[in-house]
Structure formats: structure tokens, C-alpha cells
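Annex B. Sample input.
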Amino acid sequence: MKLPNITDVVAKGEKHPPVCQMVVAHVALTTAEPLPELRTRVRAACLAKLTDYKVPAKIVPMDPETSRSARFKKIRKRAR
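Annex B, continued. Sample output.
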């Protein structure tokens, strides 16, 4: 799935007491975008393609420069 202004995404599970885990999407943007608009846009696109439990409950912007290692692999531990 491709969305405008988004270059990369790292999705992972994060502990959340009431439901055990929730999906968190760390998003690398090409240009700055207000967080409420980004969340609305990403969630709407995900709801159109994914089942409800796969849609990110939390969307966090990340720096695109630090999202990959020297070997071009996604760095998941830094995306916090």
C-alpha cells in the first residue's frame, strides 16, 4: 500500500495492558505533516485494506535517515 508523503513504515507490536498488545506504525515522512491529519489519513487507508485488528492503534512519525542500517535493513529497536 502506498500513500503520498510516506517513504517508509515500521510496524510492530507494543504492550498495552487492556488488550495485551496493539499495533504501532512508525512512519517516515518526506515533508512535515500535522500529526492529527497523518493519523486520520493512515488509519483510513489501513481500514480500507486491512481487518480491524491489523490497523495501527498508534502512529508515530520517525526520521527517515535513521530508519535503515548501513546494510539497508529496517531498524526496529530505534523506532520508539
